[in-house]
Write a structure and sequence with these properties.
Immunoglobulin-like; 2 helices; 37% strand; disordered N terminus
Length: 341
């Protein structure tokens, strides 16, 4: 006689075995269906960022969990009816240094702009914010090297003016590098290949007041412009460099030889920071065949680039009546010198 109770027990064991087998089958099927490839999970770009295990409502979680076995058989999610494991993967890309490109001016550029604008472009593959180091170096001299660090922006204009000119065989080279501003590594690019830039002089002088009329004068009468009646000549340096100014004049009087004399003189009224020297005493204006230097190193900066030139006339005792005129010439020349070695 079969014990009914034992029979029922065996039936329960069979049912439990079938249920466990079914759960195991589901577990294996789900496990295999969501398998992560070994190439991905074993790469340096992946790591487990969390592990959560639950069983009957009890959760165990480990953040930043890194296991010590290969992950090529672990899926993104594995579950059975009462048992679950969830894994997350964090993908990171290795930080790389930024790159730099010089835009303008081109190599071997020639310009009379003493404050040229330099442009460049930095690129970072991760989109990190960038700052720039700018290096402008005199070739063969160091008296005017410029080095700007941690500069923000992709255009740079030096200040004050670049001092030395290609007229005197002096030139500069410029280069830039870019650096990350907010990363842990603070990577920098290599310096860009330097470019050459030549600053050339622009010698330009003009007369703001370019004529003087003394009106009628009697024999032996003397007049001058020191009281601004009439106004003196007013010259302005409109170039990009310091200049020397020399003067000469065509013949004015008919009764005296065409040569310098006290009957026709000039002087620079004053110079206050706008030149290194000027002839502020009366001097005889030479004929057109000669020149006399009246100003040394007239400034070109705004507000310091003008000078007044006074004129003195005295009518010679034998001068015949009639209209008299002379052309006074102002000649400008470069007053800058090579850079010290």
């Amino acid at each position: 006689m079969v014990n009914k109770k034992n029979k029922n027990l065996k039936n329960k064991e069979v049912i439990s075995f079938i249920l466990i087998s079914l759960i195991s089958l589901i577990f294996l099927l789900f496990f295999n269906a969501n398998r992560v490839s070994a190439d991905l999970t074993n790469s340096s770009s992946y790591s487990i960022y969390s592990l959560s295990i639950s069983n009957g409502g009890t959760n165990t979680t480990s953040t930043n969990y890194i296991n010590d076995f290969l992950l090529n058989e672990i899926s993104g999610g594995i579950s059975s009816l009462n048992y679950g494991i969830s894994l997350g993967f964090w993908h990171s890309t290795k930080n790389m240094p930024p790159t730099i490109e010089l835009l303008s001016p081109e190599d071997n550029n020639v310009t009379n702009d003493r404050t040229p604008t330099f442009t460049y472009h930095g690129t970072d593959s991760e989109g990190d914010s960038l700052i720039y180091d700018i290096n402008i170096t005199g070739v063969g001299f160091s008296a005017d090297n410029r080095y700007e660090t941690d500069y923000i922006g992709e255009s740079y204009t030096p200040s004050p003016d670049l001092r030395y000119l290609a007229d005197n065989n002096d030139y500069y080279e410029w280069t830039v590098r870019t650096c990350e501003n907010e990363t842990d590594e603070l990577y920098c690019s290599d310096w860009a290949t330097p470019r050459k830039i030549n600053i050339t002089s622009l010698v330009v002088i003009s007369l703001i007041v370019d004529s003087i009329n003394f009106g009628e004068m009697a024999i032996k009468e003397s007049k001058n412009t020191t009281t601004d009646s009439p106004e003196p000549f007013k010259m302005e340096n409109q170039g990009n460099c310091y200049i020397n100014v020399s003067l000469n004049a065509t013949q004015l009087w008919d009764s005296v030889n065409y040569e310098a004399s006290n009957y026709f003189q000039a002087k620079i009224r004053e110079y206050l920071g706008n030149a290194t020297w000027a002839e502020t005493s009366w001097f005889q204006l030479p004929p057109i065949t000669g020149l006399i230097t009246a100003v040394d190193s007239l400034n070109y900066s705004s507000g310091a680039s003008t000078l007044k030139t006074d004129i003195l006339l005295e009518v010679p005792p034998e001068e015949p009546a009639g209209s008299k005129s002379s052309q006074i010439n102002f000649k400008a020349s470069l007053a800058e010198y090579p850079a010290p070695a």
